[in-house]
Specification:
Elements lengths: L2 H27 L2 H8 L3 H7 L3 H24 L7 H15 L1 H8 L7 H22 L7 E3 L3 H18 L8 H9 L2 E3 L41 H23 L6 H8 L3 H7 L3 H24 L5 H18 L1 H14 L1 H19 L13 H19 L11 H13 L1 H20 L1
Antiparallel strand pairs: 1-2
Helix pairs in contact: 1-2, 1-4, 1-6, 4-5, 4-7, 5-6, 5-8, 5-9, 6-8, 7-8, 8-17, 9-17, 10-11, 10-13, 10-15, 13-14, 13-15, 13-16, 14-15, 14-18, 15-16, 15-17, 16-17, 18-19
Length: about 450
């Protein structure tokens, strides 16, 4: 074997070994030892190609993503503009069905690999979206196209595929028909689309269902000396400070880079105090995620049931949700960005929250009129698209402007039930009312 050919084969084996090790043990357990064992190569050979475990992990993501991009490119060849998005979605699902382990690595395992891995995942989605948009570029003004940001649609599909692969469910290619039906509900003439890019819009008046004070503020640090508080009050203060610090460190460095020492320093507690409350950083962030999940559901439920008609209920629930996350960006970051890295508990809560939000959609089935109501898969896709959109905004540095996405979330949520015309009219009325309230 020629030296260059041998080196390519060894590199490919290492990338396959990373995919295999991640499938068995997750990102945390995919150590160099596990990778080289799966690849059948030596440790020195590993370092011939990669500086460390993370470099190999990123290279594996890019390798799988490159294969998927090539498949989508082939699927889009000579397609009409109206066929581009359906062809790309079908290609993604066929790839996930034919290459289950590699697709799971790309769509599920990559989300636990830290910021660079998330960047690679998002960049891959953006590149597929760009392929679709190029294929749609020559559409005539009257050509029907799905009025949705392709990144949001593809991210939602990644989420649905990942969820099913974790559960070992039936081949995901069977989702194609219902997902294409979901996307067709957003179709509008190409020249009249308004939701092609997910950008922040107007922010309505603050919801009355939000807590008066943001929940993520640092609890008071007791001064040195004797404290006029019971032992249980001091213990609870320490616990909340540790959780707050863990969320701050995860937002600043990412879960994988965070350490217990970082958390202790920011919380201003010693090691003994930390370990009286939590076994490690995973348990700490899992507690943060659980608390944030409970707060999100509580705020959203109260807003939803405060109204009468379903569209208005949905709008008010979305307003409370987006504004709560805007005012509590640590909750948004831990809940929507870091959760998959923290472990099985938060991942299960994410799936539970999908189920909880499906409850809010059920009433919408009474508002479809003569239209075919969304299928169960379509409703799952609606929830997944909302989660993907919030994730995208939560990753934005500085001000994520999550509250400004209310109009877009309402479009994702309402259009498959009300239809494009009625949903847009409803959203316009709500935004106009919000602007008038601001001027008043």
């Amino acid at each position: 074997m020629r030296p260059n050919a041998r080196k390519r084969t060894q590199r490919e084996r290492l990338l396959e070994g990373m995919v295999e090790a991640s499938r068995r043990r997750g990102y945390v357990g995919a150590s160099i030892a596990a990778v080289i064992a799966a690849a059948g190569v030596s440790r020195p050979t590993f370092y011939d190609y990669f500086a460390d475990r993370d470099a190999c992990f990123l290279a594996a993501i890019e390798d799988v993503q490159g294969e998927l991009l090539a498949a989508v490119e082939d699927a889009l060849a000579d397609r009409k503009p109206s066929e581009a998005l359906p062809a790309a979605v079908t290609s993604v699902l066929e790839f996930a069905s034919a290459h289950g382990e590699r697709a799971r690595f790309l769509m599920a395992d990559s989300t636990s690999g830290g910021r660079l891995a998330l960047d690679a995942r998002d960049e891959g989605i953006a590149r597929i979206a760009a392929q679709i948009e190029r294929a749609q570029a020559d559409a005539k003004p009257g050509t029907p196209l799905a009025d949705i940001d392709c990144r949001v649609a593809l991210g939602a599909i990644y989420r649905m595929v990942a969820m099913r692969q974790r559960r070992g469910q039936a081949p995901v290619s069977k989702l194609a028909g219902e997902l294409l039906g979901w996307l067709s509900a957003y179709e509008a003439p190409a020249g009249r689309r308004r939701w092609g890019t997910a950008t922040p819009g107007p922010v309505p008046e603050r919801s009355r269902h939000l807590p008066a004070v943001p929940v993520q503020q640092m609890p008071t640090v007791f001064p040195p000396g004797r404290v006029r508080a019971s032992g249980s009050e001091v213990a609870e203060n320490h616990r909340l400070r540790i959780m707050w610090a863990a969320a701050r460190v995860a937002a600043a460095k990412g879960y994988n880079a965070a350490t217990v020492a970082d958390i202790q320093k920011l919380a201003r507690v010693n090691a003994g105090t930390f370990y009286r409350h939590f076994a490690d950083k995973q348990e700490t962030l899992a507690a943060v995620h659980e608390l944030g999940f409970q707060q999100v559901i509580d705020v959203t439920l109260r807003a939803f049931f405060a109204e009468q008609a379903w569209p208005q209920r949905s709008w008010e629930a979305g307003r409370a949700l987006t504004q709560f996350l805007q005012e509590n960006p640590l909750v948004a970051h831990v809940g929507f960005v870091e959760a998959n890295a923290v472990g099985p508990g938060p991942i299960q809560r994410i799936e539970d929250s999908h189920t909880a939000f499906l409850f809010f959609l059920q009433e919408g089935l009474l508002h479809t009129g003569p239209r075919e109501p969304p299928s169960q898969v379509a409703m799952e896709a609606i929830v997944a698209s909302v989660f993907e959109l919030i994730y995208m905004r939560a990753r934005v540095a500085g001000d994520p402007q999550i509250a400004g996405m209310l109009g877009y979330i309402a479009h994702l949520w309402l259009t498959p039930f009300l239809g494009v015309k009625d949903a847009n009219a409803f959203i316009e009325r709500q935004l106009r009312s919000a602007q008038q309230a601001h001027r008043g």
